[in-house]
Write a structure and sequence with these properties.
Helix content: under 10%
Number of helices: 0
Structural class: mainly beta
Radius of gyration: 10 Å
Largest sheet: 3 strands, antiparallel
Order of helices and strands: EEE
CATH architecture: Single Sheet
Bound molecules: zinc ion
Number of domains: 1
CATH class: Mainly Beta
Shape: globular
Number of strands: 3
Length: about 50
């Protein structure tokens, strides 16, 4: 199971995802980058402001 680094809820990667893809956590809206697909790993994208 993969969980969101921000809210710790379970997240499901898009079916045809690949390394480097960016998607949004459905629960908290955090932007996540797929850093690895096997094993599945995601990293939160921190916005610099
Ligand atoms: Zn989240």
């Amino acid at each position: 199971m993969l969980s969101c680094p921000e809210c710790q809820k379970e997240i499901k990667l898009p079916e045809k995802c690949k390394k480097g893809d960016i998607f949004e956590c459905e629960n908290c809206g955090a932007e996540l980058e797929i850093i690895s697909v096997d094993p599945q790993k995601v990293e939160i994208i921190l916005e610099e402001k």
